[in-house]
Design a protein that fits this description.
With 587 residues, this protein is of the alpha+beta class. The chain folds into three domains: 290 residues, 2-Layer Sandwich (BirA Bifunctional Protein, domain 2); 140 residues, YbaK protein (Alpha-Beta Complex); 97 residues, Rossmann fold, CATH 3.40.50. 26% of the residues lie in helices and 27% in strands. The chain is built from 16 helices and 32 strands. The strands form eight sheets. Strands 4, 8, 9, 10, 11, 12, 13, 22 and 25 form a nine-stranded mixed sheet that branches. Strand 26 and strand 27 form a beta hairpin. Helix 1 crosses helix 12, helix 2 packs antiparallel against helix 5 and helix 2 packs across helix 12. The two termini are 17 Å apart. The protein binds one RNA strand of 78 nucleotides through helix 3, strand 22 and helix 14.
Length: 587
RNA sequence: CGGGGUGUAGCGCAGCUUGGUUAGCGCGUUUGACUGGGGGUCAAAAGGUCGGCGGUUCGAAUCCGCCCACCCCGACCA
């Protein structure tokens, strides 16, 4: 039981000017967080209580999977990254500090390296596996653009877990732990009282559905997620498959709509501008993106052709063509003969070593406009058969394939006839089958089945501070936060109307003691403030239950009981001897 | 990293274009009075390196230069 006057809850009428998202505004106004620098926040007492409750739920669920908690250093000698090269891959995202001797340390953005190092040095035999270890700790990432308060910080609290195995399948294998983590994560967010969606994410090196993201559903979320309402399939944009799409009139089969006509289109940077200029809607234009194949292969370039109003999905391009690819560097692409910005599918004939991937939505007949393969020009009345010709039928050069991001209304990949729907989400958890990336790089091997074999790893993260903010994004109204009981800083707020009247104070004390006895966390607002101020603050900080102690209700032998989430409801008088049970059952 | 913007009291802002008394306003804070169930009223008061450094000028919050910090859009985001 705590008293408002004895803790620190600096509520404000106005939010800092830089706060825009609901969680940032409300957590700031309600006295949970203060900004100390870009992407760096103080966690005040209320925030810390919520964070501890979230952490506690996480710990219980992690422990239930058999994982053991430990705590690794924040400062990691840069030499630790020698094997994995992540100091380079992470680039500027990695915070670095230099000590008095000039030695550089990274502030851990995540802890694959130290955990792998630890296990390598302390586990000698495969018989000691499987093993899962986790920590709840402050992480550092020098984000290019911190934003939205706690949602994207440079210093944040994260639970990260790592598991070690010799096999993928079977008892003690990676999959077994992965599935246990999946269930644990579902339990965590369920217990936190959050509405969330689990989505398939970018596949890991082992393939299959090797990665899942746990997304809190919130309109203000940064990530788009797609769901099939029939099968329950859900995925993020990077990953989402699209069901079978019919090509109207057959692939590459339509007859020309007119003579190929060149149009001069100078100084028009994007599809939209070109379309307007030519009086063609973007959905009748072909967008041809040039990718370069990384490494040595007979195929040097990959073209991805999608509709002007669609986006190419690089991951899909990679998996369809079977090569590692990257967006072609402009200089090299030009040197090879691509008129970057004005490339058409005809480039498959004019440049050697090209594989062209055509999205089903553009393979049909009808009118098409596209680039003219020379600067500042586009063409109208493009026709596949006439303008590309025989390579269309040859899968060595042209493939019909899903290479774009999924959109609302696309066919579901899991249920015939169903259509994908979109929603917004905030990523709060991510589980990932790492495979042997780190054990290979850092030489974590065990003698197993008469061979030295790399240990197979999984990693599992929960953004603890982000989860708190995500909850506010999902649960608030114009007056303030509305906490799910499980992660509210307090369960009950007792508002004293007359903190200077002994009988009121005494009643509050008795009720608080009884509630504490029943396991509820209680905050007594004992400030000498006007009722209006106290009620406004009560709504703002979002404690689930408010008990108001004043003359009115006391005269009736009770106190006023009100749930934060029942915005319109008037307080209900509850008899003193029933308050505790009423509060307990309401949570 | 590209584009745009901001920095003046604890918070939110005006003043800057066109340099010139003691730099204002709202909220908050302090004191007093009245009040007392949804941020109350009146009165008095405290609180400022005008982001920093340099320059122009008799004189700079205001004009010029450099730097720093922060925000927004984009790129990026295991």
């Amino acid at each position: 039981m705590h008293r408002w006057s004895q803790t620190l809850i600096p509520t404000t009428r106005e939010a800092p000017a830089d706060a825009e998202s609901p969680s940032h505004i409300l957590l700031s106004r309600a006295g949970y967080i203060r900004k100390l620098g870009s992407g760096i926040y103080d966690y005040l007492p209320l925030a810390w209580r919520s964070l501890r409750k979230i952490s506690q739920i996480v710990r219980e669920e992690m422990d239930a999977t058999g994982a053991a908690e430990l705590c690794l250093p924040v400062m990691l000698p840069i030499e630790l990254y020698a094997g994995t090269k992540r100091d380079v891959d992470y680039g500027d995202l990695l915070f670095k500090v230099t000590d008095r001797k000039g030695a550089v340390a990274a502030l851990g953005p995540t802890h694959e390296e130290p955990i792998t190092e630890l296990v390598r040095g302390s586990i000698n035999s495969y018989k000691q596996l499987p093993l899962s270890l986790y920590q709840v700790q402050t992480k550092f990432r020098d984000e290019a653009r911190p934003r939205s308060g706690l949602l994207r910080c440079r210093e944040f609290i994260m639970k990260d877990a790592y598991s070690f195995h010799m096999e993928v399948e079977g008892a003690g294998g990676l999959n077994e732990t992965y599935d246990a983590m999946y269930r644990a994560y579902s339990n965590v967010f369920k217990r936190c009282g959050l509405d969330f969606t689990v989505v398939e994410a970018e596949a890991g090196p082992i393939g299959g559905s090797a990665s899942h993201e746990f997304m809190v559903n919130a309109a203000s979320g940064e990530d788009t997620i797609l769901k099939c309402p029939v099968s329950g399939y859900a995925a993020n944009v990077e990953k989402c498959e699209i069901g079978v799409r019919e090509v109207s009139g057959g692939a590459f089969d339509g007859s020309p709509t007119g003579e190929l006509a060149e149009v001069h289109t100078p100084n028009l940077p994007g599809i939209d501008e070109v379309g307007k200029f030519m009086k063609v809607k973007p959905d009748r234009m072909l967008k041809t993106i040039v990718f370069r194949v990384v490494g040595d292969a007979p195929t040097k370039w990959v073209l991805a052709v999608v509709r002007g109003d669609h986006d190419v999905n690089e991951g899909k391009v990679k998996s369809v063509c079977g090569h590692q690819v990257e967006l072609a560097p402009e200089k090299e692409a030009r040197a090879a003969g691509f008129a970057i910005g004005y490339v058409s599918p005809r480039a498959v004939n004019s440049v050697p070593g090209v594989l062209m991937l055509v999205d089903p939505d553009v393979a049909g007949g009808g009118f098409w406009a596209t680039g003219a393969d020379k600067p500042d020009h586009h063409v109208k009345h493009f026709n596949w058969k006439r303008d590309v010709g025989e390579k269309l039928g040859d899968p060595r050069y042209v493939k019909l394939a899903d290479v774009r991001n999924a959109l609302a209304g696309d066919p579901s990949p899991r249920a015939a006839g169903a259509r994908l729907e979109t929603g917004r989400g905030i990523e709060v958890g991510h589980i990932f089958k790492l495979g042997t990336k780190y054990s290979d790089a850092m030489d974590l091997k065990m003698l197993y089945k008469e061979q030295q074999r790399s240990v197979i790893m999984g990693c599992y993260g929960i953004g603890v501070s982000r989860t708190m903010a995500a909850s506010v994004e999902q649960n608030h109204d114009e007056n303030g936060i509305i906490w799910p009981a499980a992660i509210a800083p307090y369960h009950v707020l007792i508002t004293l109307m007359k903190p200077d009247q002994a009988s009121h104070v005494e009643a509050a004390g008795r009720i608080a003691a009884s509630l504490s006895e029943a396991g509820l966390d209680v905050l007594i607002d004992d400030r000498d403030e006007r009722p209006g101020v106290k009620f406004k603050d009560a709504d703002l900080i979002g404690v689930p239950i408010r008990l108001t102690i004043g003359d009115k209700a006391l005269a009736e032998g009770g106190v006023e009981f009100k749930l934060r989430r029942d915005v319109a409801a008037k307080g209900e008088v509850v008899r003193l001897d029933q308050v505790t049970s009423r509060c307990s059952s309401a949570l």
